[in-house]
Amino acid sequence: xxxxxxxxxxxxxxxxxxxxxxxxxxxxxxxxxxxxxxxxxxxxxxxxxxxxxxxxxxxxxxxxxxxxxxxxxxxxxxxxxxxxxxxxxxxxxxxxxxxxxxxxxxxxxxxxxxxxxxxxxxxxxxxxxxxxxxxxxxxxxxxxxxxxxxxxxxxxxxxxxxxxxxxxxxxxxxxxxxxxxxxxxxxxxxxxxxxxxxxxxxxxxxxxxxxxxxxxxxxxxxxxxxxxxxxxxxxxxxxxxxxxxxxxxxxxxxxxxxxxxxxxxxxxxxxxxxxxxxxxxxxxxxxxxxxxxxxxxxxxxx
Length: 302
Ligand SMILES: [Zn+2]
Description:
The structure is a single chain. By secondary structure, the chain is an alpha/beta fold. The protein folds into 2 domains: 10-194, Trna Endonuclease, Chain: A, domain 1; 226-301, no CATH class. It contains 8 helices and 15 strands. The protein has helices spanning 10-21, 26-49, 114-131, 166-175, 182-194, 244-258, 266-273, 279-289; strands at 58-67, 70-79, 83-90, 94-99, 102-105, 110-111, 137-138, 141-144, 149-152, 160-161, 226-228, 232-235, 241-243, 292-295, 298-301. Strands 1, 2, 3, 7, 8 and 10 form a 6-stranded mixed beta sheet that branches. A hairpin with a 4-residue loop joins strand 5 and strand 6. The longest helix has 24 residues, at 26-49. Zinc ion binds next to loops.
């Protein structure tokens, strides 16, 4: 297990739910698709670093740090005896080319250079380390993890690890001797403590309850094509089966994530889930897992 685990961000979770329940505007659809893709790439990368010897390396996944009022993100960081290795993980797919320090898609559209990205975070990281009175050499790399990625005119002298080199890179790293001392753990703890969480709402499109398409979604493939016989929920897209209880509780959590101030009532969940025919059953499940509060005539759950 990593010293700091990666978790799906609330932003990604909300985007995913919204994508099931409304048509995202094209700009937000692009943001969402990049988020999903980026996250998938990072998870792929985590599976590789998971193979590192944990007595020799500390792995910190997904750090959002701030120094001098500037925030920067590091997809993954590896602490070894000698070095601090920030890893910029890219899940680019398809053909790209490199020309005088710039990266382009084959249609000549320039994309932000991952090398500039690591240069920027290196500077900020150095400042942060200095402020925290830690000195360890920083060695950043860009990791392209998608096997279907090609970079034409790839530079030889840049800190880039290509998909075909990933395993070798980590095998060699793992073979190195590395003795972790208290100061390494101290640094890791500082960074975990400094890790910030961003408000998930900044890049989301405006949305409200009334506009969203109602329906319980499949817990696995997120399709709304589900039906229920009162005991289980069956997804007609992927065949996944879930108990009604789990499905309802998942839907409650989704609603609370979308609308942090929403008041959970039996009627609300009945309307949102659509496929559960018995209000009584919903009430029983809510009562079992939440505290029932009364206001006048109606009951809500907290
Ligand atoms: Zn499904």
